[in-house]
Every structure is written in structure tokens, then in C-alpha cells.
Amino acid sequence: MNTRGVVHTLEDHFPLALKLLTADLGAKEGRFVLERMSAARYAVGERVVREGRFADALYYVIKGRLEASVEADGHRLGLAEIVTGEWIGEMTFVEPAPASATVTCLEPAVLLRMRNADITELCDENPAACATLLTRICQALAERLVLTGSGMLEQVADTEYRVAVPDATAPSMVERLLRLFWRQP
User: Fold this and answer.
1) CATH code at 162?
2) Model confidence at 48: pLDDT above 60
3) pLDDT value at residue 1
4) Can you tell me whether residue 50 is helix, strand or coil?
5) Which of 25, 39, 130, 152 could form a disulfide with 30 if both were Cys (CB 3.0 to 4.6 A apart)?
6) What is the mean pLDDT of the segment spanning 113-132?
7) Closest by Cα among 113, 15, 122, 123 to 60
8) Using alpha carbons only, what angle is made at residue 138 by residues 53 and 43, rounded to the nearest 5 degrees?
9) CA-angle at 45, arms to 39 and 50, nearest 5°
10) Is the Cβ–Cβ distance between 94 and 131 less than 8 Å?
11) What pTM was estimated for this model as a whole?
12) Across-strand partners of 110?
């Protein structure tokens, strides 16, 4: 599959998101990773991943805002908001399995998708890029687990609950990355 044109178009429209994705990689490795990903647009309300269904891809949010949620005792539980620069389906990179949550678009979104076969190809052909990507994904997973584990349930409607994060004013992962790479206050 020739994705060179897609990569060029993404670079023109979403340079910051791509810079965050490839920040730890050299130019060659960054291009290598991007060429193994395909771009897709999703509409408001569209589900990218469904809880319990086999997950066969890793996603990177180029643009948009999404929500991860689960069903518990007939109630929808909002777990986390996912924004530009964050991952969806991180466990797929480690071990393909059924999705642990449903991810739904809260606004129009553009995602990069890397199928399991592409992940295997990346790891076989460029172990250094694979290791860098795996490190970043593990960091994102750890952060997500800490945030989810430190929250408390709060009821937001008769049948809707969500995880309340104790310090909602803390900078997001994307904000911290921006500060790190661009020395913004």
C-alpha cells in the first residue's frame, strides 16, 4: 500500500499531531512508522472500538475528542476522554484481544490506524522504531491506569456514571508533551 500521499496530506493539515507522534523517532524511523498507518475520518457518535469485540488495530488521534466507556450493570460508565496526541487500543500492540472499552467520537475525528499485521511488520523490519513506539505506548497505558485508578465514580444522570479525576486542572499528557518539546509555560 502506498501511503506516501496520505502522509504528505497529513503533514500539511496536522503537523503538530504528527510531530507529537514521531517526536522520539528520527526522520527515517518516523516516516517508516507513518507509512504503516492508514488515516480514517469518524463522525460524531461513531464508535471506533466496541467493548468485548476483538480489537485488531492500534489508533493514534490526529484530531478530535473521543470517550472511552464501559457498560456496568446496565449503566454506561465514562472512563476517559481521549484527545489529539493520545492512543486508542494500546493493548493491541502488546496482545491482540477483545476491547476492554467502547470508544465513541464526541466530535469529528481523524485517526491513524495500524493493524496488527502492520505492527508485526514494523517490529520485524525496524526494531528500534518498534521499541520507541512500545515505550511511548506503555507510558500512555501507565498514565491512563493511574488516572482511572485514582478516580471516584460520580453519577451524572439517572443511568450514567463516570470516573471523576481528583485534579481536573492537572495538565494533560499532550500539554506536558508540548511543554517538553516546545518549552511553553
Assistant:
1) 2.60.120.10
2) yes
3) 38
4) coil
5) 25
6) 85
7) 113
8) 45
9) 75
10) no
11) 0.71
12) 41, 63
pLDDT digits (tens, 9 = 90+) for 9-46: 655 556 566 676 767 777 778 788 888 888 899 999 99
The residue type found at 96 is: P
* Residue 63 contacts residue 105 (beta carbons within 8 Å): no
C-alpha cell at 115: 493493524
Taking the C-alpha atoms of residue 168 and residue 39, their distance in angstroms, rounded to an integer, is 31
Q: What is the pLDDT of residues 152-184, one digit of tens each?
A: 555 555 666 555 555 555 555 445 544 544 444
**Assigned C-alpha cell, 94:** 502488546
Q: Which H helix or E strand runs over 42?
A: strand 38-42
103, with CB counted inside 10 A (0-12, 13-18, 19+), is buried
C-alpha closest to that of 49 among 13, 98, 15: 98
pLDDT 10s digits, 59-106: 999 999 999 998 877 888 888 899 988 889 887 766 778 888 999 999
Q: 46: domain range?
A: 4-182
Tally the residues of the chain.
185
pLDDT-derived band at 107, boundaries 50, 70, 90: very high
In angstroms, the CA 164 to CA 161 distance is 9
Domain count, the chain: 1
Is there a contact between 99 and 55 (Cβ–Cβ < 8 Å)? yes
Q: Please, which residues have CB within 8 angstroms of residue 47's CB and are 6 or more apart in sequence?
A: 102, 103, 104, 105
